[in-house]
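Late entry, evening session. Most of the bench is empty. Finally got around to the prediction I had been postponing all week. Sequence below, unchanged from the version circulated by S.P.
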Amino acid sequence: MNHKTIVQKTCRVGAVLASVMCLFISAGKSSAASRYWVPNNANWNNAANWSTVSGGAGGASVPGSSDVAFFDAQGTGNCSINAAADVAGINITGYTATITQHAGNTVTVGASGYSQTSGTFTGGNSSITLNGSFSLSGGTFRATSGNMNSNANWTVSGGTFQHNSGTVIFGNTLTITGSRTLNHVTISGSGTKTLAGTLSVAGNLRVSAGTFDLGSFTANRTSGGGTLTVSDGATLSIGGTNTVPSNYSTHSIGATSTIRYSGTNQSVVVLNSAQRYGHLTLSGSGTKTLAGSITVRGTLSISGANLADGGYTLSANGDINHATTHTGSGKISLTGDTVAHSLSGGGSYTNLEMNDANGATLSSNLTVNGTLTLTSGNISAGAFTFSISSSGGVSRASGHVVGNLQKYVGTGAPSTTFQIGDASNYTPVDVSFSAVSTGGNLIARTTSGDHPNISSANINAAKSINRYWTLTNSGIVFTTCTATFNFAAGDVDPGTNTNAVIVGKWSGGAWAYPSVGAKTAASTQATSLTTFGDFQIGEAPNLSVSLSNSAFGFGTSVLNTWLTPQTSVILNDGNVAESLVGRISQFTAGSSNWGIDSGSNGSDVVCVIVGVGSAGDPLEQRTPSTGPSRSSH
């Protein structure tokens, strides 16, 4: 094949401008050229050994950075690269001799790349840099024992590749094609290096930067030994049904590295050398199954594929972005972070453990179908809902949910505890249903501070429990239920008598006052509930009584029949005894205060008879049991 440069000039005599144009065109020779190897047994760095045409005479310049060096059938002799070679490309076709890189001499090939279909190339101990593609389809290529830098597509479709115990460094974005054995392999530079054929590694595999995408192929070590490294910031992506490259005795995994299982059904292996994953991404399709208990120091991302834990524990030290389904008898445990974990994605978990004092925050709704184990730390739901499904439950040692906790309530007479509180206090709600005919979901949350509408309630805001609870029904059909509200000592206003409190329920823009059951210093029970809403606890307001004599009595006797204060009682219409808050034995003239305990009023009407003196007329006041009235007589 002859390659000649032809410059054709056309000039018209008689015009000054045309003369100038002719001079310009004749001076504009191309700086790029082809150089052909011509001699027998000669050195690269000798102009006499290069021609501008195939089979031509020597004497052209030694190939430079803009030239392509051709070795074809016309150049029969061996070539010794006896100086640094920097060319635009090397093309070996029809050549039957040997090109040898001598010690200490680097070889740099530019954008035109390296192509070999015949002959032999023997590398030395200095670097070979390929800024264009590398293609070996015939002949023999023996790499350098130093570094071979490949920055464009790499294809070995035939011939013989010998690694010479060197390191091949793949940089930039490229595709690696062909099943061959390399010694040490390093993935560097930006972009993605994609494997398009099986790669065998005799030494170490190092992903130091960018992404090494194995696709559906493997990069296993030829035999046991060596180290697999995934450095900080780098990504190893594994496709097909494959797993982490095998036969490496040691793993070195950076804390901010990423290993991505992006195929179909894959096994998530336990790393060697007591190593832990940095970031772990489970994507693609199918199911990723744990082969043992693992730890993820960075972010666990699950999308597209499901996770089966295989009965093992996945310890997540960082955030979780989970959008699919987790199954298995093992668990995902939130532990070991220095800040709160972030839980996002809206996926479902089977067993989830909160075991980190730093806690976790929701960035989406979350569902647990198995057991939520609260070992340490709070889960802050924020504007979202943490749900326990019909097959789930909660086991608590410490910690709770701050915000909306939803639980499924089945038919029958179920009882459940909502493990809720605020950032500082655990203040759960126990709900017991008498009869549920249709199951559904109940959401509970608690808010610190008095209810925003307490001023309109028959509750003394100065003697209240400084928090309220919200219960929201979704689909539950039931007769009645009892709710026990638990509070912290710091929630109680000073001077509040927790044995004298009532419960107010805010719903539909109005207050109602359910019956009150058992009361302790840290809990109050509302009974016979048929609906839900916001629940506030506190003492009833005092009733002011103005008297003109020093003694009086009240009870259920006939009008104008007086009882001594010590034996006086207040009876509701159902004849259930009501106790005064503090026994009254005598009042002096003027205004005095007393209160009524409405805990046993039920749905009846309380009748209070107050006398203002033997000569005075009695005053009967009937007060609905929805709360004591505020009257002065």
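Two things to note before I forget:
Residues 497 and 539 are 7 Å apart (CA to CA).
The first strand starts at residue 33 and ends at 37.
Will write this up properly tomorrow.
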